[in-house]
Amino acid sequence: MNENQRLASVQNRTHLSIRQLAVFVLALLMVGAMVLTNQRDEVVAESEMVTVPVMPVVSLDQRISTSWFCPGVPGNDGTISGSIVISNPSDTDFNATITRLGVGVSPVVTAVTVAARSQAAVNVKEGIEASFISTIVEILGGVGTAEQFINHPAGNSVAQCANEPATDWYFADGFTGADSLNHIVLTNPYSDSTVVDVSFVTKESTREPSRLHGFVIPPRSVIALNMADEGARNEPVVAVEVHATSGKLVVGRSQHYLGDGRLGYTMALGASGVSSEWWFADGEKLEGSSEQLVILNPTRNDATLSVMFVNGASPDAQIEPASLTAPAGRVTLFDTGALPGVPNGRYGIIVSSIDEPGAEATGVVVEQVINRRVGNTVGTSVVLGAPMGATSTVWVAPSGVSSGIDDSLVVLNATPLDGTVTVSLIGPAGEVPIAGLESMALPASGLVSIPVPAGVSSGEVVIRATIPVVVQRMLLRGHDLIGRSAVLAMPTIPSPEVGS
User: Fold this and answer.
1) pTM score of the predicted model
2) What structural domains does the chain harbor?
3) Paired sense of beta strands 145-151 and 194-201, if any
4) Does residue 423 contact residue 433 with C-beta atoms inside 8 Å?
5) How far apart are the first and last CA of the chain?
6) What is the pLDDT of residues 368-404, one digit of tens each?
7) Are the C-beta atoms of 68 and 162 separated by less than 8 Å?
8) What's the rounded Cα separation, in Å, for the pair 206 and 245?
9) How does DSSP assign 144-188, residue by residue?
10) Helices then strands (H, E): number in the chain?
11) In this predicted structure, which of 174-178, 344-348, 404-408 has the lowest mean pLDDT?
């Protein structure tokens, strides 16, 4: 079955209301929250192992030190620069050690002091020359957050940094059309070699190059795989799986889009596991925009998926969920604009895996691709959804948000409860609500697009809600480019009880 036939086969729409479905979703939220706060333990089914992804999270436990593993910056182009933004929201200064890694070069270690209630930006390229440079941030005597920023002529990009390395990494989306550049950036932060198997899925087949089976990443180094050179040239679909057979690693994807409907640059951390749910705060059906969900099913079982649209509308205007099949070991493309009944405007999206009663739902990986067109110019954004268990009442944006635009933040509430949301800025006086962004109404089964006023100073932004939410940032791409880049804020997890 080709992709058009698969899309045409979308069927079995349910007539439950969004509010009824949200009750079910709220129960799943509670289960997911327990999974996240119990260190994301593995759930083993008879047929498949499903692991909740290690999404970057912020611990509220001030008794521990924190480390961040950032996915990489192109280092061999003078027009591209990169920095690590380290945020300290506490009342006490802390020190951080910055380790820069490349291929064929010795690690470069420097130190920085981050003052209380402030940020520090560290130049990634300082003191090191390599084709790609990855960074480890170790915060000593405090708890802070770190994000990676890339200033790229084709569009600036913010990428999250991982809390820890992992054995498995996945990318549902990938693109080499029109000779676009797709690099998979493999970082080994350890003093021993890491051995990995790398495979990829195109629109037509699964490929497991012998060169990438038992592929060795030397200690404390970075290797970038150009997917066109690995046999995936001019492909509209290049999903990638990385499995470490020895050791752990951090994996990012650097994408420079050059045509065939995509333009721009993105850098992103991969998903370090599969999930039976993925949440997207910013679905769009707007003039000039096209939206596609890209679904990788790396398991041995076909997955039946429900795609639910959440817009807080009255019962008469609610959007009925769609159902589709994601075949095992394949990539499924889902064009939301081809669905009847999806209204113009913004909506949230929840992709859920559904299985037979008593069976464990099959885990998948889902990314959202939006191409925003103005005239003959396109801006492409790609974002990985928030996995099951990632909803939280407190989210942070360590490197801040874009101000002076009407969609700086998009907040999704997929519970059946009304709530409120407040946006604050970390500054010299600590956490202070931004004027006009206090206790904003957040409807049940709905979302709100929040404009951060122009002139708001830079700094870490904190989003607090009275109910569990998902928060996405819509960022200016810089260089007078159209469209937005997109990245999730980071959810917090509670501190463990003393003595637990």
Assistant:
1) 0.89
2) 58-160 (2.60.290.11), 390-493 (2.60.290.11)
3) unpaired
4) yes
5) 52
6) 999 999 999 999 999 999 999 899 999 999 999 999 9
7) yes
8) 20
9) -EEEEEEE-TT--EEEE-BSS-BSEEEES----GGG-EEEEEEEE
10) 2, 38
11) 344-348
